[in-house]
Design goal:
Blueprint: E1 2-6, E2 10-14, H1 25-29, E3 32-33, E4 38-39, E5 43-46, H2 56-73, E6 79-84, E7 92-98
Antiparallel strand pairs: 1-2, 1-5, 3-4, 5-7, 6-7
Length: about 100
Amino acid sequence: MITFDVAGRSYGRLVVSKEFNYVDLADLFNHPWWRIHAAGYTSFWVSRIDGDVLSAQEIQELEQTVKVDLRFDYHKDELLILFDSDTVDGALCVALQET
């Protein structure tokens, strides 16, 4: 499950396959949200829908999947990607900042 923080004004949630098939994080990063006059998201959390804690291996695989997806569209000089698996027990937080 992916929960997006849309500029601190709204949240959106997607339930996806473990492989993140058909989710393009880079395209969603600048997607316009006309109703709240915002674009994209500032961070998102990845968690399991069964409530179990993400394993260390799952976190490592998710970090790699996220990096590959975002780096396809954004060079590391354009976008800073930060991972946090300690703040919310059992979930991976991904924060993004344009540089």
